[in-house]
Design a protein that fits this description.
The chain has 251 residues and is α/β, with parallel strands linked by helices. The protein is 34% helix and 26% strand. The protein has a six-stranded mixed sheet with strand order 6-7-8-3-9-10, with helices on both faces. 37% of the residues are buried. One of its GO terms (molecular function) is ATP binding.
Amino acid sequence: MPPAPATETTARIAASTSDVVKIYGSGPTAVRALDGVTVGFEAGRFSAIMGPSGSGKSTLMHCLAGLDEVTSGSVRIGDTDLTKLNDNQLTKLRRERVGFLFQSFNLLPTLTAEQNLLLPLELAGRKPDNQWIDSLVEVLSLQDRMNHRPSELSGGQQQRVALARALITKPDVVFADEPTGNLDSKTGAEVLSFLRQSVRELGQTVVMVTHDPVAASYANRVVVIADGNVAGDIDDPTAEDVLTAISRLGV
C-alpha cells in the first residue's frame, strides 16, 4: 500500500521570538523587561498580547516589530531573523513586510485620506495595486471619505484610514499598539470589528497589544504576559476568560 500523503500539521508562523531577553539599563537599576520569551503568532489570525502594566507586553511587540533590539535571543518575521539584519535591512523589512497601527493615528494633517493611505507605497517607490486599494476601501467603509483631510474625519474614521495605510503594502503582519486607546467604547468596538474583518476577509495577520479584556476578546487568541514571560494562552477568548486569566496573576 502506498504511504498516505503528507499533511501540514502546523500553521505558518508570521512572527515569533525564541528565548528573548530584553534588559533596559545596567547595574542595580537594570530592568529585565523580557525574561526568555518564546512565542509564535500564526499567519492569518488575530492575536492579542495582554498583561498588567509593566508586564512586558509592549516591549514584546516592539521587539517583534523590529522597533527595539533584543538583549539576547532571536526574533523572526516569517523565516527572517531580525537580529541578524543591519540597520538598512531592518528599515527595509519594516517598510515592506510590517504594518503599524497606533492609538495616535499618526496621519499627516495636510494630506487627504487617500494621500495618507498611499504614503507607504510612495516611500517604498512601489506602484499602487488598485484592486487591493479598492478592496481595503470597501472593507473599511471609506468610499466617501477618501478626499477628506484628518480634521474632517471622526476618530474612528481616522483610525480606519490608519489601518488601511498599515495594510496597503500587504505586510506579513500588522502590529497594533492599543489601537482603541483614544476612542470611545462604541468607536473602539467598530475599529476592533474592522481589525477582525481584515483578518477574515483580507487574510491579514494582526498582533495587537491591549490592556482591555473586551478588546482582547475580539481576537482569535490571547497571549497573557506577566513579569516578562508568557503566563497564559487562550484560544477563542471571551472577556470573562481574559479577566479570569488576569485575576490569577494577582493584579
